[in-house]
Every structure is written in structure tokens, then in C-alpha cells.
Amino acid sequence: xxxxxxxxxxxxxxxxxxxxxxxxxxxxxxxxxxxxxxxxxxxxxxxxxxxxxxxxxxxxxxxxxxxxxxxxxxxxxxxxxxxxxxxxxxxxxxxxxxxxxxxxxxxxxxxxxxxxxxxxxxxxxxxxxxxxxxxxxxxxxxxxxxxxxxxxxxxxxxxxxxxxxxxxxxxxxxxxxxxxxxxxxxxxxxxxxxxxxxxxxxxxxxxxxxxxxxxxxxxxxxxxxxxxxxxxxxxxxxxxxxxxxxxxxxxxxxxxxxxxxxxxx
Length: 265
Ligand SMILES: Nc1ncnc2c1ncn2[C@@H]1O[C@H](COP(=O)(O)OP(=O)(O)OP(=O)(O)O)[C@@H](O)[C@H]1O
What we know:
Layout: H1 2-5, E1 8-9, E2 12-13, E3 17-26, E4 29-39, E5 44-48, H2 55-62, E6 70-75, E7 78-79, H3 80-85, E8 89-92, H4 104-117, H5 129-135, H6 151-163, E9 169-173, H7 181-198, E10 201-205, H8 209-215, E11 218-223, E12 228-234, H9 249-263
The structure holds adenosine-5'-triphosphate.
Adenosine-5'-triphosphate (ATP) binds next to β4 and α2.
């Protein structure tokens, strides 16, 4: 909660991300058409939609990797460029992209070392790299090299590394997409723990309806051709969410509703 309060700016809750009439074009092709949306600070949004509807493009737009063709995007009231330079957000991809010759701990320390070597003042998490590895359930594996870790463990290292500069917004693009179902379910629980302990805002792209329902306070459904906002569905299920929740009628009801929406996209 303390972490969420840090997102309060001079007594006003500034949105973590704000898009106003944002369009993205690749040449003549419209990838995102006129999206307006506000993501509340501290929220957990899952993002669902058919293949090619612009989910990754939306994250890349928010993270200053691609500019809008028109419209505005701001992160905690700053331009995306200013937010990037201030390390306000971090990205976690489907592939953990760890340096193979560095241990788990050394990979997590890397963003701090890069900041120091460039003489840049960067925010640092209240938790040490060791504590972050513990937070993601990797206590005891700090000195393992990436090839000695499972895919799920490598993804956890990537999450710890993303948290080391104390981002206020975490952008996750199918981070567990390549993992088996059991591992994914376990990492879902672990991620919710990270979210609850750090207060970080999360935008989480997934192809899995159960994963979207299990994690998100809201599910942002996009439509394809061109990519645009279809609907935002509130997931009114209590936290902390437990494995048993997946077997409840409520959970099934949300999943069925989203499946119908997805089929209509
Ligand atoms: N750099 C690019 N140049 C041209 N077209 C692009 C580029 N990046 C993405 N696109 C197109 O934009 C559309 C949206 O792509 P995006 O990767 O955002 O979709 P997605 O919803 O994440 O897809 P998936 O679910 O399959 O991962 C697609 O039609 C894609 O081909």
C-alpha cells in the first residue's frame, strides 16, 4: 500500500498511463486506431485480443518504442520519453533475454551497473537484488547461471531485473506464454505477490483467458483490423486470489464472457 501511495502526486492520483485518441501507423497500415484510455496507478490490467489486434504495439507505444501517428500518450503525467529516461516503467518479454555468462543475481544487478557506468542517477528499489530474487521465489538460486535454470525460473529472474530500478509501471508481453500450464499458474500467484508487495501498476498481455481473469482487476479487450479498444471488463473477484478460485462458478462465468467477446472480435 505504501508503494501505491508513492504514486500520489501532490495529492492527486495521476494515471499510470493515459492515452488520448492515440493512433499507430506503419506506413499506410493502421495498427492502432483512436484508443483513449486511462490506467489507474497501482492497477493490474490484463490485455486480451485476437492475434494481430495490436496488443504488443500498444505496449510499445506506451514504452516509447514507437511514436503515435497522432494523439497523446503520457506516463504518470510525463511524456513517454521523459518517463523512459526516469525509469518509470520496465518491460518483461516472453523471452527472458538474460546474459548467459552472468548469474541470476548478476543479471538482476545489471541495470544498476549500467546506470552507474553511464553516471546516470537512476531510481533503486527499496529491496536489494537478493531480496528481489527472494520475492520471485528464487532464494537459493542466486548464483545459478541461466542455463542451469528452468524457463520459469529465467522468467522470474527477468521480473526481478525489471523491478530493480523501482519502476512504477511494469509492461509484460506474454511473459509466461512459453511455459507449461502448471508453471504458468505458479508464476501467476508469484506475480500477484510481487504486485501486492510493490504497488507497481501492471499491463499484462496474454493469449490465455484464464490467465487474464486470474490476474487482472480489469481485462482490456482489443479488436482487430484495425486494432482498437473493444471493451474493458471489470473482474470483480477478491484478492488475494488463490488456486481454488479457478474452480469457482464466478471464475468460469468471467472466462465464458470473455470467450464470447473474443469470438466477436
Ligand atoms: N514494425 C512493424 N511494421 C509493420 N507492421 C507491424 C509492425 N509491428 C507490428 N505490425 C503489425 O501491426 C499489427 C499488430 O501487431 P502486434 O504485434 O501489436 O499484434 P498482437 O496483438 O500483439 O499480435 P499477437 O497476439 O499475434 O502477438 C499486426 O498486423 C502486425 O503485422
